[in-house]
Fold this sequence. Notes:
This protein is mainly α and 546 residues long. Among the domains are: 84 residues; 62 residues, no CATH class. 72% of the residues lie in helices and 0% in strands. It has 31 helices and no strands. α6 packs antiparallel against α7 and α25 packs antiparallel against α26. It is flat and about 100 Å long. It comes from Arachis hypogaea. Keywords: Repeat.
Amino acid sequence: MLVREFGDSGLVPLDHAYGVWIRGLVQGGRLDEALEFFKQKKEDKGYIPGLARYNVLIYRLLREDRLDEVYDLFMDMYETAVPPNTVTMNAVLCFFCKKGMVDDALDLFKSRSEFMLSPNHMAYKYLILTLCWDGNAKEAFSVLKSSIDHRFIPDRRTFTRLANVLCRECMIDEMKELLHLALEWKIMPIASTYDNFITALCRAGRVEDSYLNRGDIAARLLIEMKEKGHKVTPALCRVVLCCLLQMDNSRSRFFSLFEMLSHNDRHIYDCFIDAAGHAKQAELAWKVFELMQRNGIQPTSSSLSLMLKAYLKSGRTSDALIFFNNVWSRGLATKKLYNCFVIFLCKSKNPEPAYRFFLKMLEDGLNPSIECYEILVQELCSSERYHEAVNLVDMYEKKGRRITSFLGNILLYQSMFSPEVYNACVRLRGVKEEGKTDWSMLSFVVGAFRRHHRVSHVEDLEKLIAKCFPLDIYTYNLLLRKAWKTDKEQACQLFERMCQRGFEPNQWIYSTMVDGFKRHGMRDKAERWFQESKRIFSNRETRMLI
């Protein structure tokens, strides 16, 4: 061999010749040959490769995601007493983090003294962020403290991410320590960090925690935030007030905080009405609403909607009806208020009054929102009132709007379980003009899902649906469920077409495919798809983070 001849000639040291050959093979894309040569030479005459030879192989293996072999090389380096350098170790640690291999990254970090690893700023940052995304707040905080010991100060993004995870896990003491450290580092927490900390205090039942020797921490921090120019958000106000309303003397606490914050600020009035509604305290919401008017502040459409929601969330539908009728009689019933009323009636499983007020809205010359149509059609179908549901879809189309994916999917889904959906479509089609209308095409598609019409190939059905409404991932899931009942080849082809058209399979799609393979006795393939879905959905969010 040429390499051996160079070595025997004495012109070039043998280990250098081997190194040049290994590097050449790697650069030429012949990594497997390089690995094989590397292993053979190690077994010959006790050849001990230098650090540079290991690094060449490790870098290329990392690029090709061959992590098991990277680990083997590390173990080999350890056994032959060839210490990896800091650059290599930090690259590996960051790579593990990027791949979502949080356990491997953490094991490597904990073995840093054994491997003589001295993490740099980037390695610390990646590891903390990855641990946060994995939900391991305790280890993330531990790594942060280690980084501080080595004089690495986290940036604002790392601080904010860790603070959010600590709050989510209600690790109050650690969060306090982090805030103290932030003051030392001159990192000013953003408003949402305050929000999350107060929320965590409330969830942990530590509203009266003696933080900085002050009681009622959540309420007091809320006041301080407003005084310092931070906007009090409805979500933050909601969580603080809901917590206060569970304490002794809740009403007096509620109005005491209101007096300190309001200063005739319409936004604060709305926040308190909203919070009282979420706490199912409609009486308190009404008191604030009355105070608003008494102090000369005219309620906006948003204020009216919040008061209406307060009644509905408190289960006081009759009071909500009285309130709405009163607003309507004064000519203040806006499109926003109607939409709010109909949607909340639907969500509280009251389709009858929701349908009635929907029709009244149309009589008043107001055009309901798309969400209003969609939620009402969904609730009518859930109540098996298919004729009204189909009639609503027809009314929607008459407004010059194209049927949405949501509306079309509801009809297709419901048609799989009840023949009445198709019957309602046929009855409506009978009173409409003859010919190939959009409605007759939708009726045909609904009938095909119910097997009233035979469509030989699922691709033809897919094209018909596209003429009625835009297909989305939910539509493809319905088509896949239908295809698997008759022809596995068509189902697999449909999956490929879906991917080619830019749709990213979700967990429901994978579940449908796995069930389909099982139904056709293909258990090995079902297991492979199941494992693939587990891998994808466990790593996808981690990849997005990095």
